[in-house]
Amino acid sequence: MSTAEGLVKRKWMLEGLDCANCAMKIENKVSKIEGVSSCSVNFAMKTMTVESAADQADSISEQARQTVTSLEPHVKVRELKAGGVRRKTQPGAVRAVHAHEDGDSGHNGHGHAHGDAAAHRHGHAHGDTAHGHAHGADNHGHSHDHGAGDTRRIVLRLAGGGILAAAAMLLPLGGIPELLLFLAAYLIVGGEVVLSAARNIIRGRVFDENFLMALATIGAFAIGEYPEGVAVMLFYQVGELFQGMAVNRSRRSITALMDIRPEFAYLKDGSGLRRVPPEEVEIGNIIVVKPGEKVPLDGTILEGSAMMDTSALTGESVPRSTEPGSQVLSGFINRNGVITVEVTQTFGESAVSKILELVQNAAGNKAKTENFITKFARAYTPLVVITALLLAVVPPLAINGATFSDWIYRALVFLVISCPCALVVSIPLGFFGGIGAASRSGILVKGSNYLEALNDAKIVVFDKTGTLTKGQFTVTGIFSAGGFTEEELLRTAAYAESHSGHPIAESIRAAYGKAIDMDATGNYDEISGHGISVTVEGKAVLAGNARLMEREGISAAEPAQSGTVVHVAVNQQYAGHLIIADEVKEDSLQAVKALKALGIRKTVMLTGDTKAVAEAVGAQLGIDEIHAGLLPQHKVEAIERLEQEKGKRENIIFVGDGINDTPVLARADVGMAMGGLGSDAAIEAADIVIMTDEPSKIAAAIGIAKRTRRIVWQNIIFALAVKGLFLLLGAFGIATMWEAVFSDVGVTVLAVLNSVRALQIPKE
């Protein structure tokens, strides 16, 4: 795919990439290849996009492939075609190939659009731990994507190792039998850590968490402290298991965005209609779209008329009327009527493809922020190992009477104390607890990084339809005139609309709520773009917009409320009008007030709806800033303007529900989707999903995030303070291996117990 002049963009699927830390390392290494202008590895979508000089593209592609293979030998690299065009495949395989070839599944990128950076933010909370265990699917079954079988196997392995270690401690054994029993327990529990450390050393990466764990525990065995060696490794692995469960629970599979992509088109040729993939349709071809189907490609209607549900692309709540000559876009849903369309754009250039591309680009725009633990862990491991080495070697050489055996023992005690198990276990568990509390409140958080990001939220941006409003049309106002009662006006309108399948007609019939005698109506005539002319019980009734009244020379009243207006006239006399609107959700006002109370400094509403409707809703809810009549790309531009205005430590939350919101969900620092009635695509593109569809849950999520952060930081400060004290005691020979184990295991247990508090749901 060509980009700026002289640059070309290529994309690869990295099959088997199951570790956020590995994704970051690949991205950093490939970015340094000469001729590469940018490289983005999306961990969630398992894709790598490289932009490079066109004249060097082939050689750079080969270098990039070799770099990935050298860093992660088990990862399979497969180049994807420009534009994500599907290859022909068996019908059952189409969706699977789709999800890989397009790589635009949302998020998640965003799935996680934040996937790589964000998982990096949290996934490294303990140095390179993720790296050592992330290759489980291929190497040793311990990845962060545990299935039920994997989890059961890991728990059994930890239980087996624990039982063997307990037997070794309790049975009256000694010498070789005791050593063999402890060694068997150690290998069952920690063999994979030692193996990973060895692999990383061979690849030239010495200082990672696996190395520290292996060195400390093997050191404990070397000085005869077998129980401590097994105990330290056991706690470490329990921490890893918790983290794996947390990631598995919080991140769902990234497939639903493909639902906006039409799977077929009915191509009209000499032999009739032929069902073909949209990619095979060319400009100028004629296609037929039947009721209930998605429009597969952009085009112009030649024959037929239909109501189009355009909410997937524009967010507009009212279906759009189309007729011969009207433009239709891929992604529109045909509500009624058969239409014949002349195709004006290839599939790669269609509206759906552009939205998917927006999601992909948004995924590449994520800021890669790193939290305190990431920075700490990078320096911590090499510093501890070098200090331990100096402690073992320097004093015996410099101090008279000092023995190597004494100082080597002190150095190993120092290493055992230094193992950051309390942080390794309690930080993921604290976040896991927060995620658990959120899920019990009906809020699904797809990763601890998003929960953490909520703490710095200062700007909340809302979509309108389906987010702050119900997304369902109801009659909100009945204004009678000319001697008619409200009941008579509503009954007349319901009879007039009795033959229409339009959502507005349905809302009028629902408001009337009584059986309609179909024999009482006659001479039904739908006047395109205006409304309906019909005879009701012998009276000539007109029901429609202001244009219809004007055309018939009837003086219509100005609407008293915002919304869609249906004017009614009986025998050429004005009878009044009905207001049909999308009702504001019961807790929307409460949600905006709660956010202000939490310190949110600005609320913004972006909508594809009309300015009048948007301003009415905004005024009712006290929204600070309103932007109406927007298409998806305009919403992204609005978010980017807000990005430039915000402070360095401020985050933007976007809350939406429609497919058209996916690019914005991906671009915002934290994307939230309404999951109860919302689009599957938006749910997958979001970082946080509100399953109850209640806007008030946004404030609840922020409350849980703040509480979780307090608990996590309590653990960090407590663990580091105790570690620091015992490291000093160990270095001076005051602390023995038992104190070392207490400082390691004891602090871990206390931190874990504190983390469990995060599971509680905060009281309102």
TrEMBL record:
Membrane topology annotation: Multi-pass membrane protein
Name the record gives this protein: Cd2+/Zn2+-exporting ATPase
PROSITE patterns hit by this protein: ATPASE_E1_E2, HMA_1, HMA_2
Region (Disordered): 85-148
Record's compositionally biased regions (Basic and acidic residues): 98-148
GO cellular component annotations of the record: plasma membrane
Similarity remark: Belongs to the cation transport ATPase (P-type) (TC 3.A.3) family. Type IB subfamily.
Main location: membrane
Transmembrane segments: 154-173, 179-198, 379-399, 411-438, 716-735
Organism from which the protein derives: Paenibacillus typhae
Keyword annotations of the record: ATP-binding, Cadmium, Cell membrane, Ion transport, Magnesium, Membrane, Metal-binding, Nucleotide-binding, Phosphoprotein, Translocase, Transmembrane, Transmembrane helix, Transport, Zinc
Reaction(s) this enzyme catalyzes, per UniProt: Cd(2+)(in) + ATP + H2O = Cd(2+)(out) + ADP + phosphate + H(+); Zn(2+)(in) + ATP + H2O = Zn(2+)(out) + ADP + phosphate + H(+)
PANTHER family xref list: CADMIUM/ZINC-TRANSPORTING ATPASE HMA2-RELATED, CADMIUM_ZINC-TRANSPORTING ATPASE HMA4-RELATED
A molecular function GO annotation: ATP hydrolysis activity
Subcellular location: Cell membrane
Gene3D superfamilies (UniProt xref): 3.30.70.100, Calcium-transporting ATPase, cytoplasmic domain N, Calcium-transporting ATPase, cytoplasmic transduction domain A, HAD superfamily/HAD-like
Record-annotated HMA domain positions: 8-76
